[in-house]
Amino acid sequence: MGVKFHGRDSSTILYLQQSLGGRILDSHAFRGDETIVITREGLLEVFLFLKEDPKLDFNFLTDITAVDYLGKKEPRFEVVYHFYSFRAKHRLRVKVGVSEEDPIVDSLVPLWKGANWLEREVWDMFGIRFLGHPDLRRILLYEEFKGHPLRKDYPVNLCQPLVPEREVKGTFVDQRSHNKLMQLKQQFSAKS
After folding, report:
1. Separation between Cα atoms, residue 115 and residue 76, nearest integer Å
2. Are strands 129-131 and 90-98 parallel, antiparallel or unpaired?
3. Residue 137 half-sphere exposure toward CB, CA atoms < 13 A
4. φ, ψ at 43 (rounded to 5°)
5. Is the pLDDT at 9 greater than 70, yes or no?
6. Which residue, of 74, 112, 162, 180, is most buried by count of CB atoms within 10 Å of its CB?
7. What does the DSSP assignment read for 30-87?
8. Domain with 143 in it: what CATH number?
9. What is the pLDDT of residues 84-93, one digit of tens each?
10. Strands 33-38 vs 60-68: parallel, antiparallel or unpaired
11. DSSP string, 108-125
12. pLDDT beyond 80 at 154
């Protein structure tokens, strides 16, 4: 894959191209929307640079998501990261291609603790694994759910296994439900 640069790149992207060299496969900047596409290899080092370089200072990971390009391009998936620098007040989108045969990227939890839930959501919806994640399990769907529903080849008519309702003790929801039940019992006993 050859390196492609589109339009007039911003000073941030030009700085990244000088600093990261061959790790940037593609880039574009349009009306303040700055995007780079990087290689999967050495991902943590690139993100550490984005976070710790004083000129960039991307100290806030705002989101992680993915895109499924089934039948449109290779690699099939892209993991998309969104960063913000509070000091410099600029944003950056970073895309990483992930193949269908090996849908794994490094976890960013060691750099940004907030990546934990974001990566779990991408795993749950797209089936992309995050190497080194401390607790990679479903976050939106139940554990017995089959497949990953945001993949383009997910069968929309698939019947999922039914699981028994689980009692959740000691949680806020459980306590609130208990309190509501007690209120209803008191109301009905007062009317009798």
Report:
1. 22
2. unpaired
3. 5
4. -60, -45
5. no
6. 112
7. ETTEEEEEE-STTHHHHHHHHHH-TTT---EEEEEEEEE-TTTSSSSEEEEEEEEETT
8. 3.30.460.80
9. 999 999 999 9
10. unpaired
11. -TTT-TTHHHHHHHHHHH
12. yes
Whole-structure pTM value: 0.81
Domain that holds residue 93: 4-162
- Residue 101 domain flag: yes
Percent of the chain topping pLDDT 70 = 88
Does the structure show a pLDDT above 70 at 192? no
Instruction: Please report whether residue 192 resides in a domain.
Output: no
Instruction: Count each helix (H run) and each strand (E run) in the chain, helices first.
Output: 4, 8
Residue keyed to tokens 């894959």: 1
- Which two three-digit tokens encode residue 128? 């992309």
3-state secondary structure of 11: helix
Residue 136 lies in a domain: yes
Q: Are strands 129-131 and 24-30 parallel, antiparallel or unpaired?
A: unpaired
Residues 6+ apart with CB under 8 A from 77: 66, 67, 68, 69, 97, 98, 99, 100, 103, 126, 128
Please report whether residue 189 resides in a domain: no
Residues 20, 45: Cα–Cα separation, whole Å:
10
Average pLDDT estimate for 66-76: 97
**Sign of the CA dihedral running 156, 118, 109, 54:** positive
Name the domain count of the chain.
1
